[in-house]
UniProtKB/TrEMBL annotation:
GO terms for biological process: alpha-amino acid metabolic process. The keyword Transcription does not apply. Its cofactor is pyridoxal 5'-phosphate. This is Pyridoxal-phosphate dependent enzyme. It comes from Mojavia pulchra JT2-VF2. It comes from the Bacteria. Keywords: Pyridoxal phosphate. Residues 20-294 form the Tryptophan synthase beta chain-like PALP domain. The active site is at 68 (nucleophile). Belongs to the ACC deaminase/D-cysteine desulfhydrase family. The keyword Transferase does not apply. GO terms for molecular function: D-cysteine desulfhydrase activity. Pfam families: PALP.
Amino acid sequence: MLDFSFDSPIQQIHSEITCRAGVDLYVLRLDCMHPWVNGNKWFKLKYNLLEAKQKNLTTLLTFGGAYSNHIFATAAAGNLFGFHAIGVIRGEERLPLNPTLSFAVQQGMQLIYLDRQTYRQRHTTELQADLQQRFGEVFIIPEGGSNLNGVRGCMEIVSNWTEFDIICVACGTGTTLAGIVLSLHPGQRAIGFPVLKKGEFLAEEIDSLLTNYLASDLPAPDRASASWELMCDYHAGGYAKVNDELLMFSQQFTQEHGIPLDYVYTAKMFYGVMDLLKQGFFRKGDRLLLVHTGGLQGNRGLGIGG
Ligand SMILES: *Cc1c(COP(=O)(O)O)cnc(C)c1O
């Protein structure tokens, strides 16, 4: 059996902004679970690893960009739990390897590279069959761990934290938000902060993840409907883009509260929440839980701290 008992501490934030808004603000530190196997990427992997084990498959194969948090987490979790792991990386090989990929190799991951055009076929049965033929029977996990097993794992992120009114999380594919939404208790709502431009399109993707999950034979949630919304104005220019305001906010926040943020995801969500607080978006007495989804390894790729 795989032992998955990691704890994530919860930390209260006191600041002039929360004080003025009259809210209680807490951070769920998924970044502190384990030095490498942490964040939402771990929750998205959990049931994928269990399914692989159940099927007696000892090799994981997954996809990602050269700075991917998911590649990093899969390499680490694969090593920790005794799987062989293959990372299919988008684009050409560049040497020396960047910190993300050299960590992956240190963890025993085998890397292969697909040009961008071929990489785009990663979801097709043709390409997956090619890879199965090349590597033997492997357990394929989609990019980002974004399948229904991923949703299932993310249902465990906040399920024990019933005392909060509002759960906030950064969104890339929305898989994490979907899992959180399925685990909400009566009276709770979730707010997602897309880190991509024109994040409105995610609402439809999240809806179909929710529908597909409920139609699947995976364990049903206690409650099928819950309230959630997206705040689409905090992408700071688009995926993996940063601006001076975001940089300054993030550095100041870390200094004040001792919580490091990654620039691709968590900094944008924290910035968004602080901005909404200033605008009086939340009600006095609201108890907010901000999910720190990890991803700190990615800062090294952007070359700005961390
Ligand atoms: C991947 C990632 C997200 C986004 O998760 P989705 O399930 O794709 O929405 C958020 N934060 C961090 C740190 C991530 O690595």
